[in-house]
């Protein structure tokens, strides 16, 4: 016979704490994915709507090649760096919230 789930009285293991942490991480992931998809879909859109501009030669290469071959890769790195920095900040924020809550509980 399965045992019932134990009731957690500590804040760190509460559904409220974990749901908030997951919600913030999900929002960050969606924003980074949306940024990547926007950049990814912008190149074909620019080629379609501005073919003259995209065919302009820059340093011997067509501008669209410059965007795709040179600038797209650093953009992905920037999006990744922002994701990592914000993710670490979210984790630190949640850890601080847990520490404050534990300190408040210890005072009671």
How does this model look, in words?
This protein has helices at about 15-50, 50-55, 65-105, and strands at about 55-60, 60. The protein has about 110 residues and is mainly alpha-helical. It has one domain. Helix 1 (about 15-50) packs antiparallel against helix 3. The longest helix is centred in the C-terminal third of the chain and has 45 residues, at about 65-105. It is elongated and about 70 Å long.
Descriptors:
108 residues, mainly alpha, two-stranded antiparallel ribbon, 3 helices, 2 strands, elongated
How many DSSP-defined strands?
A: 2
Sketch the topology as an H/E string, one letter per element: HHEEH
Q: How many angstroms does the end-to-end distance come to?
A: 37 Å
Query: Assembly type of the shown chains?
Result: single chain
Counted by DSSP, the helix tally is 3
Mean pLDDT: 88
Range of strand content: under 5%
Give the uncertain stretches in residue-range form: none
| Strand order in the largest sheet | 1-2
- Based on secondary structure, the structural category is mainly alpha
- Report Rg: 23 Å
Q: How many strands, which pairing sense, and closed or not: the largest β-sheet?
A: 2 strands, antiparallel
How many domains make up the 3D coordinates? 1
| Overall geometry | elongated
State the helicity in percent bands.
Answer: over 70%
Task: Set out the fold topology.
Elements: H1 15-49, H2 51-55, E1 57-58, E2 61-62, H3 63-107
Antiparallel strand pairs: 1-2
Helix pairs in contact: 1-3
């Amino acid at each position: 016979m399965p045992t019932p789930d134990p009731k957690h009285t500590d804040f760190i293991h509460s559904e409220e704490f974990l749901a908030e942490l997951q919600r913030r991480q999900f929002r960050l992931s969606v924003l980074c994915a949306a940024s990547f998809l926007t950049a990814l879909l912008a190149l074909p859109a620019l080629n379609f709507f501005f073919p003259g501009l995209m065919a302009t030669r820059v340093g011997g290469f067509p501008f669209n090649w410059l965007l795709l071959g040179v600038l797209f890769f650093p953009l992905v790195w920037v999006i990744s760096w922002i994701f990592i920095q914000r993710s670490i900040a979210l984790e630190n924020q949640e850890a601080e919230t847990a520490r404050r809550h534990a300190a408040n509980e210890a005072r009671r």
